Amino acid sequence: MLSLLSQTFVTFALGWSLGSPIAGGTSSAYLTRVAELAQLSEDALAARVSQDLSSLGSMSVGAPNNGRLVSAMRVESNAYFDVVTTQAPYGTEETLRYLEAAVRQVHAEFPDTPPVHVGDISREKGGHLSPHKSHQSGRDVDLGFFYRDEHKWYRRGTAQNLDLPRTWALLRALVTETDVEMVLLDRSISSLLEKYAAEHGESQAWLQQIFRGDASRPAIVRHARGHGTHLHIRFYNPVAETLAQRAYPFLADAGYVPALSSYAHHRAKKGDTLGKIARTYGSSVKAIQAANGLRSSSIVAGRTYRIPRAPGTRSPERPLVFPPRRLPG
Fold first, then answer.
1. Distance between CA atoms of 209 and 142, rounded to whole angstroms?
2. Is the model's pLDDT at 104 over the cut of 70?
3. DSSP characters for 227-243?
4. Collapsed DSSP state (helix, strand, coil) of residue 208
5. Is residue 174 within 8 Å of residue 232, measured between CB atoms?
6. CB 292 within 8 A of CB 305
7. Is the Cβ–Cβ distance between 120 and 85 less than 8 Å?
8. C-alpha 61: how far from chain center
9. In the beta sheet, which residues pair with residue 162?
10. How far apart are CA 128 and CA 259, in angstroms?
């Protein structure tokens, strides 16, 4: 019997998200490997890390702005991609599968589509990538627009030069064919795409979800200054993130990743002490004091404190969540 975590792992690995399969030719060998990994015991997982790391595939460790990448895959230029980055062409297997799935969809609709420019993803082992704040764990991709005329990387998009049919087809495919978390765009570009989509029959209710969100879920397309020249895409990686969370203590012990700084948030209750809280989270009194600017050991009931966790400590109070895709009705 699989654990709930393993069931979730297998479900998303097999490409099921609201009943919609991952596009792009997910191979039976890949699905078989993923199902096998989901059932590994902790001891077996530790053994794989120490003896056969590559058999586990890509892992996205930590957060996009504080993370690492294990067993990365390199994106190559081909009929779909014109890779312009030289410093960071690496991502997880899931990220590259999702990326190809979306671009394949554009080519299916427009057979004469040129390759799309691919900018930075992550370094081979992840970590800080100047000048970005994110791009650290293999889940962020900078992707170019499609243009009516000169197809050039990092060109400012306008109503005059954007190929709106192809660029909207790309954005639509990211939403419907992949587990995209968010797309950062300058509002001037997202407004053009939303207007084009509405004029070409897309549901207003669905577009509201994509471009504005609601009380339960934020928008997928979000305004960001400096993103009038490209799309910044972040994918959920149900397989690579879940596996990394399980394997993190073993990866850190083996030196494949550094001890990543992370925090829990604890709302103090009557009777709590810093010592008790520190023991609960595998932290220390001094670390909690430093993280919260405390000059004494006194804490206040009802106040929320940042709790630095010890290296290798996983957070059971913050399980990974992968929401269903937002498909048009």
1. 23
2. yes
3. -SSSEEEEE--HHHHHH
4. helix
5. no
6. yes
7. yes
8. 10
9. 147
10. 14
- Summarised one tens digit per residue, pLDDT across range 291-310 is 888 989 899 999 999 888 75
Instruction: Give the chain's end-to-end CA distance (angstroms, integer).
Output: 35
Please report where in the chains the tokens 């009929």 appear, as a residue. 79
pLDDT > 80? residue 314: no
Compute the average pLDDT of residues 43-51.
94
Q: Confirm if 168 and 328 have CB atoms less than 8 A apart.
A: no
Contacts of range 292-298, beta carbons closer than 8 Å, 24 or more positions apart: 297/273
List the domains of the chain with CATH numbers.
62-236 (3.30.1380.10), 261-320 (3.10.350.10)
Instruction: Report the pLDDT value the prediction gives residue 133, as an integer from 0 to 100.
Output: 86
d(CA 95, CA 82): 16
CA atoms 213, 217, 219, 222: torsion sign: positive
* Joined tokens for residue 262: 């992370």
Distance CA 233, CA 95 (A): 10
Q: Which two tokens stand for residue 172?
A: 């639509």
Tokens for 164, please give them.
């709106």
Q: What is the DSSP string of 89-115?
A: -EE-HHHHHHHHHHHHHHHHHSTTPPP
Structure tokens at 154: 């990092």
Q: Is residue 319 helix, strand or coil?
A: coil
Please tell me the predicted confidence (pLDDT) of residue 261.
65
What span, in angstroms and rounded, lies between the C-alpha atoms of 170 and 162? Answer: 13
Q: How do beta strands 116-118 and 81-83 pair?
A: parallel
Closest among 250, 232, 233 to 61, alpha carbons compared: 250
Sign of CA dihedral 296, 299, 305, 307: positive
